[in-house]
Design brief:
The complex is a heterodimer.
Chain A lengths: L8 E5 L4 E6 L7 E8 L6 E6 L4 E2 L4 E4 L5 E6 L8 E9 L13 E6 L1
Parallel strand pairs in A: 1-9
Antiparallel strand pairs in A: 2-7, 3-4, 3-8, 5-6, 6-7, 8-9
Chain B lengths: L4 E3 L2 E4 L5 E6 L6 E7 L6 E7 L2 E5 L6 E5 L5 E5 L8 E8 L10 E2 L3 E5 L1
Parallel strand pairs in B: 2-11
Antiparallel strand pairs in B: 1-3, 3-8, 4-5, 4-9, 5-6, 7-8, 9-10, 9-11
Classes of the chains: A mainly beta, B mainly beta.
């Protein structure tokens, strides 16, 4: 599986936008970029995924670089409930049957 | 709609014992995957089942086994428990195995402590 690199931790003020970066320089043409987050004492939660175009949903936005070697998860207004570990994961969706390969993720702290 | 449910929520065992963890997927989901998460690390893949058949296995010893039932619920069994098996065991379900239906939804996990 192609690897991703994320900062170990980040900090944000409440109600400010947060940009969580992810580098994936060895991404292949069929790899989708997935983001999951894990709140304290909970299982991981799907956030968003994309292939080439930027994506928006009710939770976040995903900005994908033109060369696809990096991406950024954007939380438009961080709340205290967004404090979690955020995982950037590559999945070859075309081959199917691929488990999620988690790294250590980015621990996001939100300050009131 | 109910999400993925797991039982028990917490469990304490001693070395050498065996344990059975249970998972009920979201209604209509046909695939179940199991992950182990030790403290401070991301979850590690153990097994994936689809339509009662094993479709993937991670790098875990044969002491770990699983099965999926006709109602798509699943059990994870671990024999001859070691201290290092202490972890949060997560179950995830997905509608199918391909495309957007492959998005996995996780349960809250079972926290296992081996003494």
């Amino acid at each position: 599986d192609a690897k991703t690199t994320q900062p170990n931790s980040m900090e944000s003020n409440e109600e400010e936008p947060v940009h969580l970066p992810c580098n994936h320089s060895t991404i292949s043409g069929t790899d989708y970029i997935h983001w999951y987050r894990q709140l304290p004492s909970q299982g991981p939660e799907y956030v968003i995924h994309g292939l080439t175009s930027n994506v928006n949903n009710r939770m976040a936005s995903l900005a994908i670089a033109e060369d696809r070697k990096s991406s950024t998860l954007i939380l438009h207004r961080a709340t205290l409930r967004d404090a979690a570990v955020y995982y950037c994961i590559l999945r070859d969706m075309d081959s199917g049957n691929t488990p999620l390969v988690f790294g250590k993720g980015t621990r996001l702290s939100v300050i009131a | 709609d109910a999400g993925v449910t797991q039982s028990p929520t917490h469990l304490i065992k001693t070395r050498g014992q065996h344990v059975t963890l249970r998972c009920s997927p979201i209604s209509g989901h046909k695939s179940v995957s199991w992950y182990q998460q030790v403290l401070g690390q991301g979850p590690q893949f153990i097994f994936q089942y689809y339509e009662k058949e094993e479709r993937g296995r991670g790098n875990f010893p044969d002491r770990f086994s699983a099965r999926q039932f006709p109602n798509y619920s699943s059990e994870l069994n671990v024999n001859a428990l070691l201290l290092g098996d202490s972890a949060l065991y997560l179950c995830a379900s997905s509608l199918d195995l391909a495309g957007d239906q492959e998005t996995q939804y996780f349960g809250p996990g079972t926290r296992l402590l081996v003494l």
